[in-house]
Amino acid sequence: MYRRWHDHYVIPAVTNFARGCHWGARRCIYCDIVDLTMQRMGPRRIWRWVDLLHRQYGVNLIYEVCDNFTSFAFSDREVYGRYGIALAERPSWLDRLLAARPAHLRDVDWFVYGRADDFAQHPDLGGKLKQLGVVRVNMGLDHADDRMLNRALRKGNRGGAAANREAVEALAAQGIQGYFSIVVGGPGETRASLDTVRRFVEWATETMTGLVVCWDPSILLPLKGAPIWDVLTDPRKGSVYFKNLGIDVPARMYEHFRTTYADFDTVDTQEITREAMSYYCPDISYGDAEELIHWVYALCEQRGIVPGGYGIRGLTTGIGTPLREDAVAAPV
Fold first, then answer.
1. Of 118, 221, 108, nearest to 164 (Cα)?
2. Global confidence as pTM
3. E strands within the chain?
4. What is the DSSP secondary-structure string of 63-87?
5. Which residues have C-beta within 8 Å of that of residue 106, sequence separation ≥ 6?
6. pLDDT tens profile 270-313
7. Which CATH architecture has domain 2-221+291-327?
8. Do the strands 39-40 and 18-19 form a parallel or antiparallel pair, or are they unpaired?
9. Where are the domains of the chain?
């Protein structure tokens, strides 16, 4: 995996110096992460750990698995204010991390997770990531249709699909690789919105020529613990959510999902996804969403891009449903 994406020998280390997401107070419709409270290690302590990894093990790539690293480009006052915590104004954690970096660790690369709208709100974010040594960003672009992004998937993007484009352009401008995921088959998906995704994937691939290292497409899976599960099983939440999308669902749906899929550990993911789509996607079928997944994988094969799931039978694509063996490119 690392050999394919780098022009030099890489010794990676997986770290978790920070956790959480500033959108955690409302969270995306598919997110089942238990705790998204913003937490982070002090910048100087982080660099002591990086220095140790670098000196003792030769580590030259930090794979930081923070839920949303780019959340920390916001000032503490803004981030924690969303949780009702009043803090004095001071530089963002990312700025303090950059300021504290020892000179001898400037050649250590980073691979981080980020949100597209963070780039839209902070035009200088791409430059700061480049300065830190970020070579790759794993970003959930999720969709390209404003209605699907902001209402169905509850991404809360400021700028909607335009924010996704700004993020792609920001990465391209800095020469930072993109590891992108998209989610289709969400409530209210249509053929028109699927076509919008196709056009966006093509545009992003061209805009970041040679810099897109992965497209990871998936069909929305109603995970227990995520808001999508709540709106399928709780009529109080579901009635408001689906009314806002203009989708009529039968009252029997809520009880059906509560009882039929009570033991979620044994659920057939394709079965529950197909059934959920039959309720909230009146204009398309599961097969239509699956066709889009196959199209993305074909594009990956043509362009030499790693497909999400790495082409291994039985793995799920991101947060979605398993792909058939004939739907993916050869393993890498």
1. 118
2. 0.88
3. 12-15, 18-19, 39-40, 61-64, 109-114, 134-142, 177-184, 212-219, 306-307
4. EE--TTGGGGGS-HHHHHHTTT---
5. 133
6. 999 999 999 999 999 999 999 999 999 999 999 999 898 633 33
7. Alpha-Beta Horseshoe (3.80)
8. antiparallel
9. 2-221+291-327
